[in-house]
Amino acid sequence: MPCRIGLQEFYIRPDGEVKLCFHFPGIGDTTKQSAKEFWTGAQAKKILKAAIGCDKLCLLTCLSQKSLLNKFNQALTILSRQKKTSPSASVSVAND
User: What separation in angstroms does the CA of 96 have from each of 50, 77, 92, 93?
Assistant: First the structure.
């Protein structure tokens, strides 16, 4: 299923940058444009099209309907990232 995050909401960063998704560049700036200007602008249309075509297995895509296979692949992706980032635990045993 296509990602629907860009159709439902946008994020306004503290610096005024407006983003549909953190994977993509911003669509405008609230300090320089009105909401109508950045929402209907060329950059927004370009990013929205890219976001709808996105196939990343991120947690934001939970806003669209996923098949059981998609959910399974998403879980595998998250688990594999955790294994890569978690420090290897080494246990030393001292004999008295």
Answer: 63, 43, 13, 10
Token pair of 69 as six digits: 């296979």
28-29, strands of its sheet edge to edge: 11-12, 17-19, 28-29
Q: If phi over 0 gives left and psi between -120 and 50 gives alpha, with beta otherwise, what is residue 16?
A: left
| Structure token digits, residue 95 | 């004999």
Q: pTM for this structure?
A: 0.57
Q: Decide: 23 and 56 in contact? Cβ < 8 Å.
A: yes
Per-residue confidence band for 57, with pLDDT thresholds at 50, 70 and 90: low
Where would I find the H helices in 9-66?
A: 35-39, 42-52
Q: How far apart are CA 8 and CA 77, in angstroms?
A: 24
